[in-house]
Write a sequence for this structure.
């Protein structure tokens, strides 16, 4: 082949950027990579998922940003595959397509009252406080000043993030890049109680210790654990013995159960063996009906039938993310992933030529950011092996310029790497006006305007 191999990466979150990096870093074949995102800005959940007050994790974006400087790598934002261009058309311009569009939807609780006003998915709340262009600003500007007691369902890291953001004072969030309207709204909060609900025991929670500890170190919030919730069975003892991270989590929770509340303005109640079975309310949610569970000896729980009521006029359902399908791509709806073998997309057990997958849409919404590097590298290894063996179909139409012309002919205002750099500069400048390192620009129109400067 006399021209470079042309690869499209769909999605510019960590897995997409790591895939682009792996392609650009190998030296066997000359490769040009277009990283396409439906948003005008790159980095997916690093920008719109990682909690804004986790400054060191968010700084991963600097590492990802460097990938866009590598020869042959281009960012093409504000282009949605399935709306602006079809997958079949992409095959005309690219020899291979790597799908890395993640798992952006919420999993459902499937209980009565789940859709009452005031009951929201964590994915939506996180999108709002990170300044996602699609966030429902009006809902949170209404719910936050009018709520006093919140229930956060789930005890994973997202539940911890959500709880921490609600429990912190605005002063504790001021060094973040949250949009100003988010800080202003959080400043109107009258929330006094936040209930974190885990349906299993302390040894079965999925949060990590560093994130857990932070909850016990907040300026104006007490953390409260009922010693009756410290239930452990043989399965718990076994994981505590064999998994240091779980042992550390349990130590933190045990220490919290001995604390005497210091009379701070907010209280974070961490519950275990508490399974929500119904949300009740009138014009909006008012309470969560919780069934006490009992450990079943093998890592699961059974219901005891004992019900309690927790007052909550705001419920955040944080029970995991869920992947969705894309037109013309095989999809395993039960697992919320694209079926694949070593990153090669499979239809009816056979590899689809030129189609690959990496990240959460490949393996499900688990792991930390770094997990996606190994995952993306494995997918790129499969792609490069196919390029070597001749298994990769060769695109007929396309140079990079012809692809750009196609987008322009459709009136699509694609954002280039240079456009993203302009947005980046505009966000830093906006932050500087308030003495902050950056303030996120949250509207698509404003992002596009900044990209053109
Ligand atoms: P997660 O870790 O899978 O946690 C989901 C939680 O929801 C679990 O406690 C789960 O309980 C609970 N749950 C599920 N279905 C439920 C139901 N029907 N009723 C009650 N509870 C239910 O997912 P996540 O918190 O969304 O996080 C996603 C991934 O992102 C994780 O890998 C996480 O570590 C990562 N992440 C990392 C960070 C960080 O490193 N700082 C921050 C955010 C996210 P069971 O275990 O009983 O199912």
């Amino acid at each position: 082949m006399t021209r470079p191999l042309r690869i499209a990466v769909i999605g510019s979150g960590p897995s997409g950027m790591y895939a682009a990096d792996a392609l650009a870093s190998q030296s066997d074949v000359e490769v040009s990579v277009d990283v396409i995102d439906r948003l005008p800005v790159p980095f997916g959940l690093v920008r719109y998922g990682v909690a804004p007050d986790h400054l060191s994790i968010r700084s991963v974006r600097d590492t990802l940003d460097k990938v866009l400087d590598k020869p042959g790598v281009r960012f093409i934002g504000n282009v949605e595959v399935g709306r602006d261009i079809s997958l079949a058309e992409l095959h005309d311009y690219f020899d291979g397509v790597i799908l890395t569009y993640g798992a952006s939807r919420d999993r459902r609780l499937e209980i009565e009252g789940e859709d009452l006003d005031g009951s929201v998915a964590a994915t939506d709340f996180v999108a709002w406080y990170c300044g996602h262009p699609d966030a429902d600003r009006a809902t949170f500007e209404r719910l936050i000043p009018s709520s006093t007691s919140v229930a956060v369902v789930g005890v994973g890291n997202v539940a911890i993030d959500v709880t921490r953001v609600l429990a912190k004072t605005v002063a504790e969030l001021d060094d973040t890049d949250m949009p100003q309207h988010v800080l202003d709204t959080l400043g109107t909060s009258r929330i006094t109680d936040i209930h974190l609900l885990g349906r299993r025991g302390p040894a079965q929670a999925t949060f990590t210790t560093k994130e857990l500890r932070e909850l016990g170190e907040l300026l104006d919030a007490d953390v409260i654990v009922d010693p009756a919730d410290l239930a452990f069975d043989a399965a718990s003892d076994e994981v505590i013995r064999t998994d240091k991270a779980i042992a550390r989590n349990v130590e933190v929770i045990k220490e919290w159960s001995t604390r005497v509340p210091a009379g701070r303005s907010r209280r974070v109640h961490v519950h275990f063996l508490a399974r929500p079975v119904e949300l009740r309310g009138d014009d909006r949610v008012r309470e969560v009906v919780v069934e006490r569970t009992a450990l079943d000896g093998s890592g699961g729980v059974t219901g005891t039938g004992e019900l309690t009521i927790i007052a909550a006029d705001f419920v955040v359902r944080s029970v995991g993310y869920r992947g969705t399908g894309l037109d013309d791509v095989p999809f395993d709806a039960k697992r919320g992933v694209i079926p694949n073998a070593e990153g090669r997309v499979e239809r009816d057990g056979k590899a689809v030529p030129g189609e690959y997958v990496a990240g959460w849409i490949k393996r499900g919404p688990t792991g930390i950011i770094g997990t996606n590097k190994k995952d993306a590298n494995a997918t790129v290894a499969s792609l490069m092996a196919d390029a070597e063996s001749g298994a990769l179909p060769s695109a007929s139409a396309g140079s990079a310029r012809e692809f750009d012309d196609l987008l322009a002919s459709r009136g699509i205002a694609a954002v280039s790497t240079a456009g993203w750099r302009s947005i980046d500069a505009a966000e830093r400048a906006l932050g500087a006006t308030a003495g902050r390192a950056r303030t996120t620009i949250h509207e698509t129109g404003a992002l596009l305007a900044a990209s053109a400067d």
Notes: The mean pLDDT is 96. The chain has two domains: 5-104+323-415, 107-320.
